[in-house]
């Protein structure tokens, strides 16, 4: 499925708290846990806090302008701080050579200069060490534990906060890390890219700082606040070469589109995200936080003040070309697709032969149209060769119901599976590209490509996509809330990773539920307002483990009345079909076996 990444690492216990604090748990062993980065100032300008180090030298955050800064919270008594000290020294050495700066921050009351100096000597720290029992900087960063690490880019924008890695936790230790949160985030920030994981709870000694409620900075301006909101939430699509209808890369471009921006932010159609916030937590939640939304709207109503250029955000280095890196293989449509300037364009189905002489395991893949301005979405379905040993797993692809392999929609067209996870691509397979083009007033030509990067060998787990579908239905003419259901009983214990509901222009709402073997019924995804224009993937922040025999029930509602302005014909009954004026009911689920 699309987005980065499609799944979380299987061995990460990613308990996710929308309110900020990690969820209460009775577990004695606690690894890092994902947090909602929007609640922890990630992506925001951090105030220019002043401090004095243990050598008596004064400083402030702006001293590091133009350089990446890593702030470690620590103290001299926490056992986990002591265990991580050698790792922090290694970070200082390895990344100091790349120009990264480091700062140790001790906010524990009762610590002395002498105890801090001893820790510096014992562990070999070379970076500045700050004692700050008032915790001015710690509160600005919203520090939670003594092992928190924070990455600020050269414009004082917080880009990552949380754990160093998962080697040490509450009640356990490993021989080596399995997830390198800080290393991977630092590599991304140094390269001008966005970290995969932006916020975690770091196992350590609780700081219990009185953080208070996040408030809008006084005098919201473009440079101090809004540019970072636009960068984090809009520029992925609204830039040159991508699907957005106009660019939002500069103050002038945003000002020119201020009316439309205000409208779509106010009615919550942008950024596109349709899951009910009260049900489930999602790693790839695209929605604006209420704080970001209020600040953006207030700025638009206040005359769009530009502010002081010294507060400007650091420019993002958006990837040019393949986002997954250089592909090992590139598959493309055999012929150029010509799209007219106007009129409805029927779905096009194009077979692309792989011609690989051996089975392959796909670690990363990406779909790139050559004319993204006219491509609504691309779905790729896998057809096994009938003589392949595993062909019986797909006896009838049924127009893709049993063979969904990859998809692309605006802003969501690539996937990178973590190490140990991959999708299976049989030798000699055929990939069927379903292409939905939308005329935009000018003739265009497209030759969509798909790039692949392969895993070095068979993975620990194989990622599957199940289409929970109902193909035998009739939506009566004029029905404005017609429900259709489908279900899948798990044949084995499984870890559920993500969901991707698919309907056409009459689609109105969706719900995914689990019927547990004990009879309990639980809603796990609620989409009260489905939009055909955005075929979104919903990635669970915490993968859901289900036992054999559990049932996933999917319900979709349709509006086939004249109240639906997208309805091609309110007077006609509607049946299953592949074209837009027909309907589909497919609730895709990404999963892998637990046994």
Give a description of the structure.
By secondary structure, the chain is α+β, with helices and mostly antiparallel strands. The chain has four domains: 42-201, 3-Layer(aba) Sandwich (Glutaredoxin), CATH 3.40.30; 222-311, no CATH class; 329-462, Jelly Rolls, CATH 2.60.120.230; 465-593, Jelly Rolls (Sandwich). It contains eight helices and 33 strands. Strands 12, 15, 18, 19, 22 and 23 form a six-stranded mixed β-sheet that branches. A five-stranded mixed β-sheet has the order 6-5-4-7-8. Strands 14-20-16-17 form a four-stranded antiparallel β-sheet, with no helix packed on it. A hairpin with a 5-residue loop joins strand 28 (507-515) and strand 29. Helix 5 packs across helix 8 (290-301) and helix 7 runs antiparallel to helix 8. The chain is globular. Mean pLDDT is 89; it is low at 1-25.
Short description:
By secondary structure, the protein is of the alpha+beta class. It is built from eight helices and 33 strands. The strands form ten sheets. Strands 12, 15, 18, 19, 22 and 23 form a six-stranded mixed beta sheet that branches. Strands 6-5-4-7-8 form a five-stranded mixed beta sheet.
Q: How many strand elements?
A: 33
Quaternary structure? single chain
Question: Residue ranges: pLDDT <50 for 5 or more in a row?
Answer: 1-25
Helix content, binned percent: 10-25%
Distance between the termini: 23 Å
* CATH top level class name of the largest domain: Alpha Beta
The portion of residues forming beta strands comes to 25-35%
User: CATH fold name of the largest domain, please?
Assistant: Glutaredoxin
Q: Count of helical segments?
A: 8
Q: Main β-sheet: number of strands, strand sense, barrel status?
A: 6 strands, mixed
Summing up helix and strand content along with how strands pair, one would put the structural category as: alpha+beta
Specify the overall morphology: globular
């Amino acid at each position: 499925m699309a987005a980065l990444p499609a799944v979380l690492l299987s061995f990460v216990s990613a308990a996710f708290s929308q309110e900020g604090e990690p969820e209460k748990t009775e577990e004695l062993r606690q690894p890092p846990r994902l947090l909602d980065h929007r609640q922890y100032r990630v992506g925001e300008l951090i105030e220019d806090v002043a401090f004095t180090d243990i050598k008596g030298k004064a400083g402030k955050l702006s001293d590091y302008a133009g350089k990446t800064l890593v702030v470690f919270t620590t103290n001299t008594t926490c056992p986990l701080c002591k265990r991580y000290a050698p790792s922090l020294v290694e970070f200082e050495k390895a990344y100091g050579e790349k120009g990264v700066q480091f700062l140790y921050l001790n906010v524990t009351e009762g610590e002395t200069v002498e105890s801090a100096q001893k820790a510096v000597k014992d562990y070999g720290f070379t970076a500045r060490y700050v004692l700050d029992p008032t915790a001015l900087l710690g509160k600005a960063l919203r520090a939670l534990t003594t092992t928190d690490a924070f990455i600020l880019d050269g414009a004082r924008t917080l880009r990552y906060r949380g754990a160093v890695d998962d080697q040490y936790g509450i009640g356990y230790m490993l021989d080596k890390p399995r997830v390198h949160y800080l290393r991977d985030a630092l590599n991304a920030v140094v390269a001008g890219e966005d970290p995969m994981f932006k916020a975690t709870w770091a196992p350590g000694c609780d700081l219990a700082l009185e953080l208070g409620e996040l408030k809008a900075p006084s005098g919201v301006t473009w440079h101090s606040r809004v540019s970072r909101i636009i960068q984090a939430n809009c520029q992925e699509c609204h830039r040159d070469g991508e699907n957005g209808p106009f660019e939002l890369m500069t103050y002038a471009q945003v000002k020119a589109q201020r009316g439309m921006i205000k409208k779509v932010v106010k009615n919550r159609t942008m950024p596109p995200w349709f899951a009910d916030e009260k049900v489930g937590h999602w790693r790839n939640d695209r929605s604006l936080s209420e704080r970001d939304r209020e600040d953006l709207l207030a700025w638009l109503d206040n005359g769009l003040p530009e502010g002081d250029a010294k507060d400007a955000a650091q420019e993002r280095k958006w990837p040019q070309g393949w986002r997954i890196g250089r592909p090992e293989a590139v598959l493309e449509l055999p012929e150029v697709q010509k799209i007219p300037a106007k009129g409805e364009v029927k779905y096009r189905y194009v077979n692309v032969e792989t011609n690989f002489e051996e089975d392959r395991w796909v670690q990363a893949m990406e779909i790139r149209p050559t004319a993204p301005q006219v491509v609504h979405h691309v779905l790729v379905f896998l057809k096994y060769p009938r003589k392949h040993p595993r062909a019986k797993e797909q006896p009838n692809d049924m127009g893709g119901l049993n063979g969904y392999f990859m998809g692309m929609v605006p802003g969501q067209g690539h996937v990178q599976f973590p190490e140990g996870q991959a999708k299976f691509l049989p030798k000699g397979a055929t990939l069927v590209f379903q292409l939905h083009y939308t005329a935009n007033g000018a003739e265009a030509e497209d030759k969509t490509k798909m790039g692949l990067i392969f895993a070095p060998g068979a993975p620990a787990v194989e990622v599957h996509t199940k289409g929970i579908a109902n193909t035998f239905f009739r939506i009566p003419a004029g029905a404005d809330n017609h429900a259709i259901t489908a279900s899948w009983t798990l044949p084995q214990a499984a870890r559920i990773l993500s969901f991707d509901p698919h309907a056409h222009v009459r689609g109105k709402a969706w719900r995914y539920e689990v019927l547990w073997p004990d009879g309990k019924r639980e809603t796990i995804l609620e989409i009260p307002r489905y939009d055909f224009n955005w075929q979104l993937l919903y990635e669970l922040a915490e993968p859901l483990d289900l036992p054999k025999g559990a049932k996933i029930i999917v319900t979709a509602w349709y509006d086939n009345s004249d109240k639906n302005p997208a309805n091609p014909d309110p007077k006609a009954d509607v049946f299953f079909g592949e074209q837009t004026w027909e309907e589909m009911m497919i609730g895709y689920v990404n999963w892998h076996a637990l046994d």
